[in-house]
Design brief:
86 residues, 4 helices, elongated
Length: 86
């Protein structure tokens, strides 16, 4: 697949079919996880909306220190330590 395709979404879709969805935030790379990834392919505008919202939040509050972003920061730090170390 990697040698034949340069479309990241197509590669991800193929990987999802082969290995399953795994976990969004965590070490598990295969099997059932907490998010139904197939939703992203059925509703790609939802993924784009989420990305745009994440970009907006990080542009306005890169450290996630504003009160409205503290819960998000806590979840990220708890589920993926080091993710916000930039």
């Amino acid at each position: 697949m990697l040698a034949e395709c340069y479309d990241g979404f197509e590669i991800a879709r193929n990987d999802l079919e082969i290995r399953g969805q795994g976990e969004l935030m965590g070490p598990k790379q295969a099997g059932s996880g907490e998010l139904e990834f197939s939703e992203m392919f059925r509703e790609p505008e939802l993924l784009l909306t989420a990305k745009n919202e994440a970009d907006r939040i990080l542009d306005s509050d890169p450290e996630l220190s504003n009160p409205e972003n503290r819960t998000l920061k806590h979840i990220i730090q708890t589920e993926s330590p080091g993710m916000l170390d930039f």
